[in-house]
Amino acid sequence: AIALVAFGTAMAAAGGSSGLVAVVSGWTGGREIAPPRADPQQDQSGTSIQADKTAEGFWTRIITYDWSLTKSASPDALTLARGESGEVMYTIEVTREKVDESESAGVRGTICVTNTGEAATEGLAITDIVEYKKPPDVTDWTPFLTVTVDITEKPILDPGESHCYDYEIPFTPLEGVTQYRNRAHVTITNHSGHLGEPFGPEPKAGFSLPDSPTVVEVDESASVSDVEHCPAGFTCMPSETGPWTFHDSGSVSFHKTITNETACDVMAELHNVATLTEGDTHETRTAEAVVHLTA
Q1: End-to-end CA distance of the chain
Q2: Element (DSSP H or E) covering residue 10
Q3: What is the 3-class SS of 182-209, one letter each residue?
Q4: CA separation for the pair 47, 122 (Å, rounded)
Q5: DSSP H/E element including 13
Q6: What's the pTM?
Q7: Which tens digits make up the pLDDT trace of 91-117?
Q8: What is the chain's percent helix, strand, coil content, to nearest 5?
Q9: pLDDT digits 0-9 by tens, 173-205
Q10: Of 147, 204, 140, residue with least CA distance to 170
Q11: What is the pLDDT of residues 244-261, one digit of tens each?
C-alpha cells in the first residue's frame, strides 16, 4: 500500500494521468485491474474487467511406441472321433517399436477474466506475450513471441461472470536466458472511458524452464485379450485366457484341450482371435489362428 501511494504521488508530481493502473499483487502470478480513465468519455456507458494469469514453464521429451502382434497354433489340425480330445498350444508374440521421439519446451497456464461492470463485454480479445531478460546485455523485459489466445469457448462475459482461458505456447529456449516472463493483454471494446477502442488489463507472471525434460511415453504398454469361437459339437477348455499386459516386446503361450462331444462326419474350424490394445491411444491390432477339426 505504501509503494502504491508513493508511486501515485510521483506520477501526480510528474503530471501523469490520474488513471493509475492498480497492481493488486506482484507480477509473479499477479492480478491487474484496468479502471476507467478520466476523460470526456467517462460518462458513456460500458463495463470494466479484471484479469489474472498463471504461467508454468515446461520441457517435455515425448517417446511414442507402436505395437504389433502375431498368433500361431500347433498343431493347426486335429482329427477327433466322438469322445476323443486333443491338445493345441497357442503362442502370441507382441512387438513394441519406438516410432517417434521429440522434445517440446514452452509455457502454459490460464488467463482468468472477470467482468466487474454492469454490461456484457464486447470484442473480448487476449494476446499473450513471452518476454525475457538476459543481463547485462538485455536488462529490460523484451518480447520475443506473441500469440492470440483462443476465446471461442466463452467470447462474451455477462456482468459478474468469470472465465479462465487455457493457453500453451511452445518455443525454442533462448541460449543463455534464465529469466522469462509471460504477459497477457486482455482487452474489450466497450470498456468504460474507452468505448470503441481495445482496452484492458495486462496481468504478468514470471516462469522458468525445467533443468531437465519430463519424459512422457505414449503407448508405453499394451494389453492383449484372447477370444475363441469353439464350433458346435466340440468343447474347448479353458474357455477364457488372458488378458496379459506387456511393457516391452514378448510372448505368451497357453494350451487348450479340444474335445469332440457330439460331432460326427464333419469338418469344422476353431477360430481363436487375439486383440492387442495400446495403452494410451487405445488403437487395436488383431491376429488370428485357425485349427482345422475333422470328426
Answers
A1: 94
A2: helix 2-13
A3: EEEEEEECCECCCCCCCECCCCEEEECC
A4: 9
A5: helix 2-13
A6: 0.67
A7: 999 999 999 999 999 999 999 999 999
A8: 5, 55, 40
A9: 999 999 999 999 999 999 999 999 999 999 999
A10: 147
A11: 999 999 999 999 999 999
CA distance 204 to 52: 8
Residue 129, number of CB atoms within 10 A of its CB: 18
d(CA 285, CA 159): 52
115 closest CA partner among 29, 197, 194, 191: 191
SS3 assignment, position 78? strand
- The predicted-structure confidence for 59-70, as pLDDT tens digits, reads as follows 999 999 999 999
Q: Letter for the amino acid at 265?
A: D
Whether 28 shows a pLDDT value over 80: the answer reads no
Q: Which three cell numbers stand for residue 209?
A: 524452464
Beta bridge partners of 228: 272
Examine the pLDDT at 15 and tell me if it is beyond 80: no
Residues 52 and 201 sit within 8 Å (Cβ to Cβ): no
Interatomic CA distance for residues 80 and 57, integer angstroms: 67
